[in-house]
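SEQUENCE-TO-STRUCTURE ENTRY
===========================
Question of interest: how does this chain fold, as expressed in backbone structure tokens?
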Amino acid sequence: MITKLNLQDKIWYGLTMTDAAARQIKKLVTSDPRMFGLRLSINHSGCAGFSYILDLITEPNKSDLVYEHLGAKLFVPLQVMPLIDGTRIDYIKIGLNYEFKFYNPKAQHACGCGESFSI
């Protein structure tokens, strides 16, 4: 018997943000009063299969899950949760630049440049 997975019934571990990530999200959002938060999603791309996408949003989708830390809001489409559940998001300095870094326990492989991952 095949059962259909109901994403609404799943208990998620969720996502966490470091203080640095939350501060940067708040900084991005407060630069434009129309912004509501950031949406984290994934896209099929890169040499490993998936890449993370961060977008400023003016309105959340009804199916988005909301994660909040220090007043920063991160919206995640329900359908991507199976691929990123348990991820910790940080904002770190690499060389002369700063970037969001994703620590995804479900990611099995990453490409050499670090731009994509596979499950």
In short: The chain is about 15% helix and 40% strand. Helices lie at 19-30, 81-84. The chain has a mean pLDDT of 83. Strands lie at 16-17, 37-45, 49-57, 64-69, 72-77, 88-94, 97-103, 109-110, 117-118.
